[in-house]
Amino acid sequence: xxxxxxxxxxxxxxxxxxxxxxxxxxxxxxxxxxxxxxxxxxxxxxxxxxxxxxxxxxxxxxxxxxxxxxxxxxxxxxxxxxxxxxxxxxxxxxxxxxxxxxxxxxxxxxxxxxxxxxxxxxxxxxxxxxxxxxxxxxxxxxxxxxxxxxxxxxxxxxxxxxxxxxxxxxxxxxxxxxxxxxxxxxxxxxxxxxxxxxxxxxxxxxxxxxxxxxxxxxxxxxxxxxxxxxxxxxxxxxxxxxxxxxxxxxxxxxxxxxxxxxxxxxxxxxxxxxxxxxxxxxxxxxxxxxxxxxxxxx
Length: 298
Fold this sequence. Notes:
The longest helix has 33 residues. The two termini are 38 Å apart. The chain is mainly alpha-helical and 298 residues long. The chain has one domain. The chain is globular.
């Protein structure tokens, strides 16, 4: 047996440890940023009130941050360990800032009909918690794709990440508006006034699925001229988003042929049905992502 292969594996793992340490540090920073830039008192919500809505929202945000940071690992092994760790730290801080901005944008343009802080802290509204978690995971997935692109230099990489993130963020907002129109019920009204958890689970699942599709439009972008790369990503994002909205509506009807999905969710608040639908939506998004994902430029 060639024992040198185990030495190579050990070296490979050791070289990745500085990257891992940087990522953990940034994840802790992401948690602090969320707590310091929201009106929630984390200790009260988690340990005094034992608020499940806040726990779901915070957990989704941290998962989104983790997904974004995993994109920052792309290409890191091409540098020496310390340089790669420093670049990941810088990319990670940018990811944290953009993720937090994404949540603010989504609060304003996707969940705009009600106050997020009131619904989560005062009403302990799990439906809103799942929506916020889905929004965070979607944005983290988008950032993951934006950070896997190819750019000439660190500064241009930061610029390109912001540009491609903004493009996908706009597509996410538009897709969610289309989703609400395809549903036979008022998504916002049911979440706000009825505290309908099922609607929040279904919408949160759609957000995650859309994030997966939009990520595929950004992966490996940046090798060609910037304008051309943005145009390609825009076409792929629009096509993928429109297809997921259309297919999602059809899938829900095929998934429950003898029962109305909308009635089960709207009238019965059937969380089980909504959870199944959310998982199927994410599965369909994974299928679509393989179609939408661009072919890397030579």
